[in-house]
Amino acid sequence: MRIALLSKGGTRLYSNIRLIEAAEARGHDIQVVNTTECYMDIATHKPSVHLKGQKLPFFDAVIPRIGASITFYGCAVLRQFEMMGTYPLNESVAITRSRDKLRSLQILSRAGIGLPLTGFANSTKNTKDLIEIVNGAPLVVKLIEGTQGRGIVLAETFKAAETLIDAFRQINANFLVQEFIKEAGGSDLRCFVIGDKVVAAMMRQAPEGEFRSNLHRGGTAALVKLTPEERTTAVRAAKKMGLNVSGVDILRSNHGPVVMEVNSSPGLRGIEQSTKKDVAGMIIEFIEKNAKLDRTKTRGKG
After folding, report:
1. Maximum Cα–Cα distance across the chain
2. Of 107, 110, 264, whose CA–CA distance to 194 is shortest?
3. CB neighbours of residue 47 within 10 Å
4. What pTM did the predictor assign?
5. How many Å is the Cα radius of gyration of the chain?
6. 105 located within any domain
7. Which domain holds residue 176?
């Protein structure tokens, strides 16, 4: 099978290295395709993707590893592959949906999946009521475009929350206001979902004095045993986003598991090292079972 690994990071990233190793170990031809260096022939009956002056060959499958900073262009390239009939591990529509924090939460809410109390507004006149919607301070203010724990601030008092929200509005930033799940104790669960199954899970713990548990911010990871409700929540969340492979981040709250985010390009280092599982191999195995010509649900229409 010929597989394209669509990534700006090349062969220097752990996740890419592992996917290449897993694909080659199973006898597949895998090529890293630099997302930002691709360009496309759009207005033609035979859509194509070009790189470094050459038209790329047909790929049976494409693994999108699209960074948040290039979501728009990365998904455009992925749609082009979809139009050519290549099977995408995650479809462009699903990735775009998951990257929009507001839209993704609205989708999960409509499905009845547990979420933190969340508010979103535009007018500065509504600040006090917005804070009350999430049961007051302490609360979390989260930039919609933020990733890896960046753009997330904890406001511990009502006054601090008011000041922070008004400041964000002054710079026309898009942000959410969410309740602070104090009982989580600075930890969350990363549930790695492939297809309709949680194949690996870890608990991430924030360092002392920090509430964000992201490994990029100094958090630590350890193997964790999920409850049946947590497993079901993770799988349902991934399915509602339309993602075949995802990292679903869950907090343990007093009212059950709540989903913080559904990540369409979850890293492999933390989950493989903490669980000792061959997650990269499981991803390639999923592609082997599901990759067929023109199997994209949206076929680049989204």
Report:
1. 61
2. 264
3. 17
4. 0.88
5. 20
6. no
7. 118-180
Residue 19, domain CATH: 3.40.50.20
| Per-residue pLDDT reduced to its tens digit, 117-148 | 999 877 667 788 889 999 898 999 888 765 55
CA 64 – CA 77 distance, rounded (Å): 10
Cα–Cα distance, 149 to 147 (Å, whole number): 5
Report H helices in the chain. Answer: 14-25, 71-83, 92-99, 101-110, 127-133, 158-170, 228-241, 269-275, 279-290
Angle, to 10 degrees, between the axis of helix 228-241 and the axis of helix 101-110?
120
Tokens of 248: 């679903």
Instruction: Identify the pLDDT of residue 29.
Output: 98
Q: Which candidate, 168, 138, 166, 163, places its Cα nearest to that of 151? A: 168
CATH code for the domain of 123: 3.30.1490.20
Q: Is residue 298 included in any domain, yes or no?
A: no
- 90 and 139 share a domain? no
- Percentage with pLDDT > 90 across the chain: 66
Buried b (16+ CB within 10 A) or exposed e, 104-139: bbebbeeeebbbbebbbbeeeeebeebbebbeebbb
The count of structural domains within the chain is 3
Q: What is the DSSP letter of 27?
A: T
Q: Give tens-digit pLDDT for 53-100.
A: 999 999 999 999 999 889 999 999 999 999 999 999 999 999 999 998
